[in-house]
Amino acid sequence: MGMQLVDANRGTYTEMNVVPLIDILLVLLVIFMSAPHQQKGLDASVPQPTVERPLVGIIVLQVFSNGDLRINQEPVAWDHLADRMQAIYKERARKVAFIRGEAPVEFALVARAIDLLHGSGISVGLLTPGLEQQR
């Protein structure tokens, strides 16, 4: 209702018409409900082992909570990580390394390792706990 009249002593007063606002709200609700949600996270690959062939030749980078790094159980320093990974992948056609964060590790350490690997041209995947038992 746009306007209401009251008795002569009080005069007239106006109310805001909320119907157009509700219409706009409903239109926006339909638009945002039907629009596809675009979420972006870290690109990650998960290795898919075959039944007849175990996982061989996978490079696993372990990040520990104290900041230590290991490439397939071999300790490596942060300063030498990029050079060491480039040396490992120099002769390989597929450049994928898997990162395993040893709990409780801060995400900043894992993100730093991912950044160094991406800077070396190496794709990064996640290692799920069940795959270590197959090695």
Explain the overall architecture:
It is a single chain. The chain starts with a strand and ends in a 9-residue tail after the last strand. The strands form two sheets. It has a five-stranded mixed β-sheet, with helices on one face. A two-stranded antiparallel sheet has the order 1-2. It has three helices and seven strands; from the N terminus they run ββαβββαβαβ. With 135 residues, the chain is α/β, with parallel strands linked by helices. The longest helix is centred in the N-terminal third of the chain and has 16 residues, at 19-34.
Strand adjacency order, main sheet: 5-4-3-6-7
Helix content: 25-40%
**Succession of helices and strands:** EEHEEEHEHE
Classify the oligomer: single chain
Number of strands: 7
Rounded mean pLDDT score: 77
Which consecutive residue ranges, at least 5 long each, have pLDDT under 50?
130-135
Please outline the major beta sheet: 5 strands, mixed
Class computed from helices, strands and strand pairing: alpha/beta
Radius of gyration: 29 Å
Principal-axis shape: elongated
Q: How far apart are the termini?
A: 74 Å
The number of helical segments is 3
Residue share in β-strands: 15-25%
List the helices and strands and how they pair.
Layout (H helix, E strand, L loop, with lengths): L2 E3 L6 E3 L4 H16 L24 E5 L5 E3 L2 E3 L4 H8 L7 E6 L5 H13 L3 E4 L9
Parallel strand pairs: 3-6, 6-7
Antiparallel strand pairs: 1-2, 3-4, 4-5
